[in-house]
Amino acid sequence: MLNAIRQKKELSHESAIQMCLAAIAHANTLSANIGVVILTPAGVELAAVRMNNAPLHALGIARKKAYTSASFKVSSLSWQEKLKHKPNTMNALLKEDNFTYLGGGLPIIVDDEILGAIGVSGATEQQDIECAEHAIEKLLSSLSPSK
Q1: Nearest in space to 103 (alpha carbons), one of 117, 115, 88, 120
Q2: Contact call for residues 135 and 19 (beta carbons, < 8 A)
Q3: Which of 10, 81, 76 is nearest to 46 (CA)?
Q4: Which of 102, 117, 107 is nearest to 55 (CA)?
């Protein structure tokens, strides 16, 4: 039985918490209030934080964004373009509990392997994306050997 067992890497809960804090720190620079969710590649929640003044729906939407990114290994926003001329597919996917094409969900990829996904919601779509990107950049810089 060749390849009967696969080993997968995923983020630690400590890294997930640090990513949430990095996204929130960036949101503070934008005067935005967000919710942040970090999932494993299998869609299991590692960390979730909602800023006090974030919309009540922020965490639920952030979770959908992260789940979409973990599932398809692409940004949640990329689905807007992919589905633009496919209304039947869009309608079918939007009926799925954990799917959204709203921007703010990104896969967390290190060395060409998905380690998880982040979803951010509560600000503008562009600000949500910026906060998610900032958190990923902080993670990647923490993994790089210091010079």
Answers
A1: 120
A2: yes
A3: 10
A4: 102
What are the backbone angles phi and psi of residue 52, rounded to the nearest 5°? Answer: -50, -40
Q: What is the DSSP letter of 54?
A: S
Q: What is the pLDDT of residues 110-141, one digit of tens each?
A: 999 999 999 999 999 999 999 999 999 999 99
Q: What distance in Å separates the CA atoms of residue 34 and residue 47, rounded to the nearest whole number?
A: 14
How deeply is 123 buried, as exposed, middle or buried, from its count of CB atoms within 10 A (0-12, 13-18, 19+)?
A: buried
What is the enclosing helix (H) or strand (E) of 121? strand 113-121
CATH tag for 13-141 (out of 3.40.630.30, 3.30.450.150, 3.90.380.10, 3.40.50.620): 3.30.450.150
pTM of the model: 0.93
Domain boundaries, given as residue ranges, for the chain: 13-141
Residue written as token pair 């934080």: 49
